[in-house]
Design brief:
0% strand; mainly alpha; 77% helix; homotrimer
């Protein structure tokens, strides 16, 4: 009961932070108020939508419970009005974003195991939950997803989701799975931000 | 019986007009015949597909009934051949498009309520039905969705879908829900076209 | 039993070849290792995902069986390391790609008929299975899908899928349906590559 309350609170916090990142991209692309709200909603909810549609759990929880829609809308409106201030706070937002990443990869993996997936696909779905919203944001904003461009972002999510998926699959306690997977993802991602760790690039000239 | 016949006719008319707008974009991007047909189908059917996948009503009605596929294909072929004429008729097409918008937001909201959604998510799904095809068209054509660029397009659809969703949810007669929601969306959109109403843009310089 | 083993082997071979084409695009766009792997997976599995989500067969087979995930990951890693060599082999890859196209259109159509679709929508779903991965690849790589640009690629897939759909729908033997549809698609596509057949473009200047 208490733990479930905490999970919902964390979930909403993750959606909120992701939605702000989507709205900031929209403001920089000079989209109108509606574009800002759509990018906020897509970034905050898109990863979960994609997971739920793929594992066949429809309608997604965020459509069944209207409060999930209010959070990204509020984040979008806040960003629309206060974007000069929020834009400057981006380093802090990146830290919150890492928390969102950690939470989404863990809940995504757990929900996928509960839907009957085995650990490896469930880990992939956990990563998809964590990075899908940002990828959809970039597609709609007309740019190649930033997570393909060297930043170490998806690998921590996959690792955290993998641990959570294995522990959940073998009936580990939910809290332990969430804590172990989430911590790994969070610490890895924060260190990657701090030390500018990057993913490897292909070597040598690409043939045309 | 009669009313259902009218609804199907309206639905096909909306698909037809949306498909023409998709095919015109494809012609301007110099895509080949196949690209024209795909953009016609995606624009005409995409919003309903997205809604049906999200609310879990699969396969979508337009896949179960093959006649729904013929309409956008016919619209695409017509546009492929007669695009110089159709392109000049675009102001008139915008008016028909407003009818399509009004119809799709209303039927999308009603189907979502029937699938078990509460009014707020159902209103959002109604809007998604009305604008999703155009967004998918713009993604495939390689441009940021035009509805993010200031034109007042989605707000009337959301308003109309909201009214239809609330009336359907509280067991109002289907015809009344469709008429009230559809009229609001249609009139608002037509006035917005006429008076060049735009959605607000963010103020101040965006931080980089 | 034996025929089913062959089908799985063909399916995996098709995924492998499609995944290499996705990874090569990613290398050319200078994406990082993660981007290469994602484009490999999306190109190899995306068409089947899209079909399964639309016909309501979730989770997709490639999520239920983790071996389906290993094949595109392996193809992506190979391409990441050996892309200068693989890039030069592209003419050969196009021939393998034609085999993948033929296989995917046939299996996609058959699965759609089994899910209850009638022949015309099933044929369209077969084509979607065959071309959907490549379209998603191009969207994520930030370019208009190459199949809209004149190459004769989707039409053979639609024709092959149509034959397979009709034969499966009228209870023809699975092997015959697969062979007839697949052969038509394969031969047509190979001749189109050889003779540079293109799809027709719109005539006359497009209105602005």
């Amino acid at each position: 009961m208490g733990s479930s309350w905490i999970l919902v609170a964390f979930d909403l916090a993750g959606i909120f932070v992701f939605a702000i990142s989507g709205a900031l991209v929209a403001v920089r692309k000079q989209l109108d108020l509606f574009g800002v709200l759509v990018l906020a909603c897509v970034t905050g909810l898109g990863g979960g939508f994609l997971r739920d549609v793929l594992i066949g759990v429809t309608p997604p929880a965020s459509l069944a419970d209207w409060r999930y829609l209010l959070v990204p809308v509020a984040a979008g409106l806040l960003t629309f009005v206060f974007h000069p201030t929020l834009g400057k706070m981006e380093p802090y937002i990146n830290v919150f974003d890492a928390f969102g990443l950690a939470l989404f990869c863990v809940t995504g993996a757990a929900k996928s195991v509960e839907a009957g997936l085995s650990p490896i696909p469930a880990a992939v779905m956990g990563m998809v939950t964590a990075i899908g919203g940002g990828m959809a944001r970039d597609l709609l904003a007309g740019r190649v997803p930033v997570i393909f461009r060297g930043e170490l972002y998806a690998t921590p999510a996959l690792a955290g989701a993998g641990i959570a998926a294995v522990l959940t699959y073998y009936d580990g306690p939910e809290v332990v799975a969430a804590f172990c997977g989430g911590s790994l993802c969070l610490v890895w991602r924060l260190v990657a931000i701090r030390r500018n760790w990057t993913a490897p690039l292909p070597r040598g000239p690409a043939s045309v």
